[in-house]
Design goal:
- The complex is a heterodimer of chains A (831) and B (124).
- Chain A contains 27 helices and 39 strands.
- In chain A, strands 3-2-1-7-19 form a five-stranded parallel β-sheet. A five-stranded parallel β-sheet of chain A has the order 9-16-10-11-12.
- With 124 residues, chain B is mainly β.
- Chain B has a single domain (4-122), classed as Rieske Iron-sulfur Protein (3-layer Sandwich).
- Classes of the chains: A alpha/beta (831), B mainly beta (124).
- The A-B interface holds A 57, 63-65, 484-485, 506, 509, 515-519, 521-523, 541-547, 549-550, 554, 557-558, 801, 804-808, 810, 812-816, 829-831 and B 1-2, 21-22, 26-31, 33-36, 41, 44, 47, 49-50, 63-67, 70-78, 80-81, 83, 85-86, 88, 90, 102.
């Protein structure tokens, strides 16, 4: 057995292990990996996402089990300190000595720290590892302003993260433009304008001479005698290859760093390979992941005795979303050294810049750059890489075809050998063949089977297009079946339930499903049954998610929160007092919600019926905050109080909320009514929102807050109340009948073929002739509404379900609270 | 207060105590309830669809929450499982193994039903 030792457990080191294990028998090679970081290999490309959720797991490339099941001996937090090339051993800082036959150096790079006095001051950080980010997050809590040194890719990513932390953010760049390596002056100017719009301040042509401060930094001083006072500095001024081990054992290295390698990735010692950011190949250091993966492939092939696969350099084409702005650069973006014909398009209004460089004869594409709109990147890159003929009017490449037939530059035009995924080097032919031969049924399966799209993910739009294309060419329809227990889409199941008058989950599973169900199909079917029949969901409580099962929202620690309905956000002082009294009696944490209601937190399971008994007695009903159901209809005070109000938005909101209360849907439903165009109720961020106009009401649909905010779109203009309600009936019922499970109206509308125009045709113009039927179905569903909590409070059998122990009356003794600002909150997650 | 080490899988043949927990009727069909035994919390599932009973620790190892008895049950490729209500980690009710993540396995316990009562097996 040959002993392979890998130094470095970053993305490229990991990829090498994965490729070697996949392509060679385990019994032929043992693999030992040393990584100095204290954790498993993680995705550094998406490091900035860590700022959003601090979730290391989401970035981890493979779990411990992967290393175990592939028989890879992983040493985390262990630094290789010495290589003995004569004895062929490596020695770690802990003194562990391991022999090798083949050594892989995937030591990566470290951030380059320019030699400016003061970089050692408190408050100066680099941006490379999860530990760096943890330190930045901790320090960032305590300060107001930050500068990022370096206006390149990583610097701008860091700046965005700093801005998201709420800091006053500056970017300091030595060159005369941002991203000088990828963009020309015009492109960089567009990018800068967009970045400044967000509130990031950009300082160009700044040569930083000193970082001052007493202990911790207080300002940057520049060569032009200006200074920038800041509390924190993140240095992102480029990378330096980690070649110190190689130097120590006298491998050949470059004058400016990097281990010299040949096309097989061999160093000056044929038994030692270098891959990734540490490798110096033909005078180039590659700081991107895709070339790193290609290097890993070349090294694996050579180790396996296949000398044909060479690494012959890689262009630095890249596309990314920087600060929410698409930026891409491909091929020869500048063409400084070759004759070419550029086509430029600049739109200062929308912030778009596109440049493509053609050969002198105008027949082939050499490269280019895109700012603000990079949708064409993949296809431009393919056109360039495959030398495809350009359309007769090459300006269509940047402008799109204007009028007439489009010039068909979709995935179907690409040759079989076109490389779709550059990270994993997967061709179009390989993807299509896998879909056909292996009968792949989803994009997820294509990813898992071919590995395409598993690296940077930039090719996913093309992979998805290819998937749909290939299925279509095979005459297949794309169906999203629910789960392994039902070979039907949600819409098909809804039709079955309706046509066959099925009233229970078990009956549906018996008749049309297989197996025992699961946590996906149970609540999905529960939602269908509720939407169609609106029977009390307590009748089938164990197919409900815990919130619907116990009619309350589960919170950290296992207690629940309670939200009584406060229609339109209007509440009397007496009712407010009742809420206060109940909260006091049961010692509940209270908070005003975003939907103009009051949330009472920290109720034990057994207390819920008692709490609701008091609330019901005072005239409250369930707010369905726990359900995929109508939540709230927010309102502004409207014409009754407001000097600008056109109509009575409060009354309309209350009417709407009471009309649809208890209505269950594929996902939660939020609404709002504003009394004038000032839109204080924020109706355009709701699933359906209504805004008063001089002549009546405007109805907007498909809005969303949340992770991907989206404005609602105008469905009908200046309609009267009755018409507005009719349209909402139709819209909601159409959504309920056709949406996938757990899909909000915004996502549903985005996916709906024909989009808003089609929806308007169905709802307003009644093009399908189902308008009246949808209204009727809505009326039937609404007619049988009753308050679930009232039912439970008055039913001893149902009440008895609300306890933690089946063999005891005590609450869960493990629930613990602490006090914050005079109220109780649960202690943190257990460890 | 919560110690995951308190929960260890008990094999049917090593049961020394059969704890009489509650009548069958106290457990909802195709659902679970929590049983307290000497400070331990055990989730017991009445899997009527399969005509089977299962028991496991009530503690979800992901975020250390006493919650699994309130989870939905079902099957994956025929293996009976429970899904934690908090973040939908699923665990095999037969082996306790986590089926969709890297959490450690949960402890499982033998269950028997005699004369309308549910018994859980412990080893101590």
């Amino acid at each position: 057995m040959k002993k392979v030792v890998v130094i470095g457990n970053g993305m490229v080191g990991y990829k090498f292990c994965e490729k070697l294990r996949k392509q060679a028998d385990q019994s032929h090679y043992s693999i030992t990996v040393f990584g100095e970081e204290p954790r498993l290999a993680y995705d550094r490309v998406h490091l900035s996402e860590y700022f959003l959720n601090q979730n290391v797991d989401a970035l981890t490339l493979a779990p411990h089990q992967w290393y175990a099941s592939n028989h890879i001996d992983l040493h985390k937090g262990e630094l290789v300190a010495h290589i003995d090339r004569n004895q062929k051993t490596v020695t770690t800082h802990r003194g562990l000595q391991v022999p090798y036959d083949t050594l892989i150096m995937a030591t990566g790079s470290s951030p380059f720290i320019p030699s400016i006095p003061g970089t050692d001051k408190k408050g100066v950080f680099v941006y490379r590892t999860i530990e760096d980010l943890d330190a930045i997050i901790a320090y960032g809590q305590k300060v107001k302003s930050v500068a990022v040194l370096g206006g390149g890719l990583l610097g701008l990513e860091a700046a965005k993260a700093m801005l998201d932390m709420g800091l006053e953010t500056h970017v300091v760049e030595f060159a005369s433009r941002l991203m000088p390596r990828q963009l020309d002056d015009s492109g960089a100017a567009i990018l800068q304008a967009k970045i400044e719009e967000l509130g990031i301040r950009v300082h160009l042509l700044k040569n930083t001479q000193a970082i001052t401060g007493n202990g911790k930094l207080d300002a940057l001083h520049f060569a032009d005698d200006t200074k920038l006072p800041v509390d924190m500095l993140v240095i992102s001024a480029g990378i330096r290859p980690r070649d110190e081990l190689a130097r120590e054992c006298q491998l050949s290295t470059g004058a400016r760093g990097g281990i010299v390698v040949n096309d097989h990735m061999q160093t000056s010692d044929p038994d030692i390979y270098a891959i990734g950011e540490v490798a110096l190949h033909r005078e180039m250091i590659y700081g991107l992941v895709a070339p790193g993966y290609d290097m890993a492939e070349a090294a694996v092939q050579h180790i396996l005795g296949n000398a044909d696969k060479l690494f012959q350099g890689n262009d630095m084409s890249t596309k990314l979303k920087l600060i929410g702005i698409d930026v891409a650069s491909f091929g020869d973006a500048f063409c400084t050294d070759q004759p070419h014909l550029p086509i430029l398009y600049t739109d200062h209004k929308k912030g778009i810049y596109k440049r493509v460089n053609l050969t002198k004869d105008g027949k082939k594409l050499l490269g280019g750059m895109l700012v603000g709109d990079a949708e064409a990147y993949n296809i431009l890159l393919q056109t360039m890489q495959n030398g495809l003929a350009l359309p007769p009017d090459p300006e269509d490449l940047v402008l799109g075809a204007r009028g007439g037939e489009s010039q068909g530059m979709g995935v179907e035009c690409l040759p079989e050998e076109a490389q779709i995924c550059s990270c994993e080097n997967v061709s179009k032919g390989a993807i299509c063949q896998a879909i056909q031969d292996k009968g792949l049924n989803s994009v997820k399966e294509v990813k898992a089977c071919t590995k395409a799209g598993t690296g940077c993910g930039g090719c996913m739009p093309m992979v998805t297009d290819l998937f749909h294309h290939t299925l279509q060419s095979m005459g297949k329809r794309v169906r999203k079946t629910l789960c392994e227990h039902f070979d039907y889409t949600r819409q098909e199941l809804l039709d079955l339930v309706k046509v066959e008058d099925i009233k229970s989950y078990e009956a549906l599973l018996d008749r049309h499903g297989k197996g025992d169900g699961c946590e996906i199909c149970k609540p999905a079917v529960a939602s269908i049954l509720a939407s169609l029949w609106n029977e009390l969901i307590t009748a089938q409580d164990t197919i409900q998610d815990t919130n619907d099962r116990y009619l309350a929202n589960i919170q950290k620690g296992g207690t629940y929160s309670v939200v009584p309905r406060v229609a339109g956000g209007e509440i009397t002082p007496d009712k407010l007092i009742v809420i206060g009294q109940v909260a006091k009696k049961y010692n509940l944490y209270t908070k005003i919600t975003g939907g103009q209601r009051i949330d009472l937190f920290g109720a034990h399971l057994h207390e819920l019926p008692d709490i609701w008994e008091e609330l019901v007695a005072a005239g409250f009903e369930s707010g369905h905050a726990y359900g995929k159901a109508l939540r709230t209809v927010k309102s502004c005070v409207g014409s009754s109080w407001c000097r600008y109000g056109l109509h009575d938005s409060v009354s309309f909101a209350i009417e709407i909320e009471n009309r649809y209360k208890g209505l269950r849907a594929p996902h939660k439903l939020k609404s709002a009514v504003s009394g004038c165009i000032r839109e204080c109720a924020e109706a355009q961020s709701k699933d359906f929102g209504i805004i008063a106009t001089e002549k009546g009401w405007n109805l907007y649909v498909g809005g969303n807050g949340g992770a991907k905010p989206q404005h609602a779109q105008l469905l009908a203009q200046d309609v009267d109340k009755e018409t507005c309600i009719r349209y909402i009936d139709r819209f909601l019922m159409f959504y309920i009948k056709t949406a996938e499970p757990l899909t909000r109206t915004a996502t549903w509308l985005n996916k709906l073929e024909g989009g808003l125009a089609y929806l308007r045709d169905v709802v307003v113009n009644d093009c399908l002739g189902i308008g009246e039927q949808l209204e009727l179905e809505m009326q039937q569903t609404l007619a049988v509404y009753s308050c679930e909590w009232k039912e439970v409070v008055n039913n001893p059998t149902l009440r008895a379900r609300f306890k933690h122990f089946v063999n005891g009356e005590e609450p869960d003794p493990t629930v613990q609270f602490e006090t914050v600002r005079e109220q109780k909150v649960p202690v943190g997650w257990g460890k | 207060m919560i110690d995951i080490a308190d929960y260890k899988t008990v094999a049917e043949q090593s049961v020394t105590t059969w704890f009489k927990a509650a009548p069958v009727s106290a457990f909802p069909a195709n659902g679970g309830a929590c049983v307290l035994y000497k400070g331990k919390q055990i989730a017991v599932f009445n899997f009527t669809r399969r005509n089977e009973w299962y028991a496991c620790q009530n503690l979800c190892p992901h975020k250390m929450q006493m919650i699994l008895s309130r989870g939905m049950i079902g099957s994956e490729q025929g293996v009976p499982k429970v899904a934690c209500p908090f973040h939908k980690r699923t665990f095999s009710l037969q082996t306790g193994a986590c089926l969709n993540g890297d959490e450690c396995a949960i402890a499982t316990y033998p269950v028997k039903v005699e004369e309308g009562y549910v018994y859980i097996g412990f080893e101590e």
